[in-house]
Design a protein that fits this description.
This protein is an alpha/beta fold and 189 residues long. The chain is built from six helices and seven strands, in the order αβββααβαβαββα. It has two domains: 1-34, no CATH class; 56-187, 3-Layer(aba) Sandwich (Glutaredoxin), CATH 3.40.30. The strands form two sheets. The protein has a five-stranded mixed sheet, covered by helices on one side. Strands 1-2 form a two-stranded antiparallel sheet.
Length: 189
Amino acid sequence: MKHKFDIYKLFELLANVFIIVGVCFMGYTLLSNRINHNTSISGNTHNAFVGQYIETLSVTNLNEEPVDIKLNNSPKPKLLWFIWSKCAACENLVPLMNNIYSNYHSVVDIYGFTLSDTQQEIREFINTNDIFIPFFIDQHRHALDVLNIEMLPTLFVINHNNRVVDVIIGYCNDTESKTMASIKGVIGN
């Protein structure tokens, strides 16, 4: 028995495949542009945020209780560290962040934020890496939206007047020196 080849059914099948692939690609692209966990390019600065006043971030603590971090309650400069525990570039920053915390926590308020981790995942990350920085979960994407975070890790250096003085995105060879220079700049060293 010979099968009849139907060219129209082939075109219909191909059209459906292209539509499905296109929709998947668009969804992936939109999600990747919103927050990209797998890549990092350091040294880029979010110039639009330099000079901006940041007052409050609404997040949850590690007990999943809502918290409003009022950045204007402290006269100290701030360092905000945004990560995802499964991001290799984020993990590369751990030694630097632990060093900054141990040497500067008395003169700089340092906060860690995760944008995608569960409570258990961030606790494991903190414990595995001996991190003492207070961490918060951005469950409702408030910080993500307010600060327009598109890539991880992202560091915001904020002066004593709550104005952003530097935004360091990603991780590369100059991330540590750039971060230290920004920290020393806001504390006057």
